[in-house]
Write a structure and sequence with these properties.
single chain, 114 residues, alpha+beta, elongated, binds zinc ion, Transposase
Amino acid sequence: MTSRCPDCGLPVLVTRTLPGKTTAGGKRLAVNPDPDPAGNTGVRRDGTGAVVSRRVTEQQPLMGYERLHMPHAATCEAQQPQLPLDTSKASPTPRQKPLPEGVIRLSDYRQRRT
Ligand SMILES: [Zn+2]
């Protein structure tokens, strides 16, 4: 079933997760509606027409009847909890390079005149 992400409003495909080695299954997982080779979720329709998904791993590779999708949470712009909120700490702005000789900063020039 296609739905919309309540956070960013983009269309998502809501799947039901299958029980896996590490997951109990039966949860709702929104994936991006278009197959994505970079995704980690195998999506298929089960016998009743419901869309089911599971985590694709090395031990449980993608099957021919499944399509690889990206979990929407991985790309949702409205929910990126794994990113640090204060990006200035994560990537400090590089210091300004020294200017070549004979060139002055306009801001310095203005300060000198006042
Ligand atoms: Zn979203």
